[in-house]
Design brief:
The protein is 23% helix and 39% strand. By secondary structure, the protein is an alpha+beta fold. It has an 8-stranded antiparallel beta barrel with strand order 1-6-5-4-3-7-8-10, surrounded by 4 helices.
Length: 226
């Protein structure tokens, strides 16, 4: 199912204010590690021509990103994800994988017998074999996430976005990161058919600057020559 995805640049002060408002109203995401949320680490893949990166830069109306995601530096939950964007809508196909499968993907030896276009493993394998996907960058940040059932609403506050080119160390704690040179905090609001009016008022979206903020793009562009 496609969801509307809206992004807004925030200052640290705005983030703090939003979190205080949302804490008493909405349910926190199940991945929450403590009151401040949890750490998200994603390993992004692209082909030698950087097709995914260029599609973001060019604002292509339809594009895909391929990534593996873990939480709190733990391999207890590893997700293989394919995120598709269609204009202002997004759709994410996600599948949990094992540490062994992660190692196979990192080594370029991943195989799958699935043939369903709904299975991210099939989509990833297809892109890997036809376009030679390879790990490009690790994107990490702290996330505080909230859920609201009506409208399938998901609100995330992402802080301290940072990048690393040490892709071979993904899944370990022995990774050095580089801070972004520009904005490193973003509010993301996702919903299917509608965003309840009380949430619009709570978030005061009319006072925030809407953006096309792409963590993948900013983290790739953190390094010269990209």
């Amino acid at each position: 199912m496609y969801l509307v995805e809206e992004k807004f640049c925030c200052t640290a002060r705005e983030m703090y204010s939003l979190q205080r408002r949302l804490d008493g109203v909405l349910r926190a995401d199940d991945n929450e590690h403590n009151d401040e949320g949890y750490l998200v680490s994603s390993l992004y893949f692209d082909d030698p021509a950087d097709t995914c990166l260029l599609a973001v830069r060019d604002g292509c109306s339809r594009r895909r990103k391929y990534r593996i995601r873990i939480y709190n530096n733990s391999l207890a939950v590893i997700k293989l994800e394919v995120k598709e964007k269609l204009d202002a809508m997004t759709r994410k196909r996600s599948r949990q994988i094992t540490p062994e499968t992660l190692r196979e993907i990192m080594a370029g030896s991943f195989q799958t017998d699935t043939v369903s276009p709904e299975d991210p493993a099939f989509l990833f394998h297809l892109a890997a074999t036809t376009r030679t996907l390879r790990p490009k960058v690790i994107v990490a940040y702290e996330r505080k996430a909230y859920l609201y059932g009506p409208g399938n609403v998901r609100i995330t506050l992402d802080r301290h976005v940072r990048a690393s080119r040490q892709t071979e160390r993904f899944g370990t704690t022995d990774i050095s990161y580089d801070a972004l040179t520009g904005p490193d905090a973003v509010l993301e609001v996702k919903y299917d058919e509608f965003l309840p009016a009380f949430l619009k008022q709570l978030l005061e979206l009319n006072t925030l600057q809407q953006t096309s903020f792409s963590k993948y793009q900013l983290c790739r562009e953190r390094y010269a020559g990209i």
